[in-house]
Amino acid sequence: KHLSFLPASMYTEIQRERPDGGNILTHPDYIDGNPDLIKPKKLLNPVKASKSHQELHRELLMNHKRGLGVESKPELQRVLEHRRRDLLIKQKKEEEEAKKLQSPFEKELLKRHQRLDQLEKEQEKQEDHAPEFIKVKENLRRTSTVTGDEKAA
Q: Region annotation Disordered: residue ranges (predicted)?
């Protein structure tokens, strides 16, 4: 309050003379060179410390020195991708040949088998929707016919 009448240059000089200087950041104690204090070490970045990161970085530097772009892949990776692609193409061709080698008889059997499976599934769904007293009645009929046949024998 009492400094408000001073000119701006005087105010700035007083600010400079103050020991804290209005500085929010404090200076660390280890800069003083006190031998009793343990100086902190910079923490390692786990990503940069990893082997894969170091290898990738080394490869990028080598490619940059050679003048290759980032988009170009290493030779090993290109060869492996080419082999995978060839293997997939070969498998697809084998599957197509296996389909062609099926005789018309085998195809027809497969179709009938699929239709039978579908019919069985539909019957199971219908049985699940039937009321429970009908299911119990059917079970009673089965047991009564079995016992009647056993008596006759």
A: 116-153
Residue 106: per-residue pLDDT: 84
Q: Name 40's Cβ contacts closer than 8 Å, sequence gap at least 6.
A: 30
pTM surpassing 0.70? no
From residue 78, how far is each of 72, 73, 83, 125 by CA, in Å?
9, 6, 9, 53
Q: pLDDT tens, 40-63?
A: 888 888 888 889 889 989 988 888
With beta carbons less than 8 A apart as the criterion, state whether 64 and 57 touch: no
Token readout for 68 is 């290759």
Cβ-proximal residues to 76 (8 Å cutoff; 6+ apart), any chain: none
**Whether residue 81 has pLDDT greater than 90:** yes
Backbone φ, ψ for residue 103 (5° rounding) = -75, 160
Q: How far is CA 34 from the centre of its chain?
A: 51
- Contact assessment for residue 153 and residue 147, using Cβ atoms and an 8 Å cutoff: no
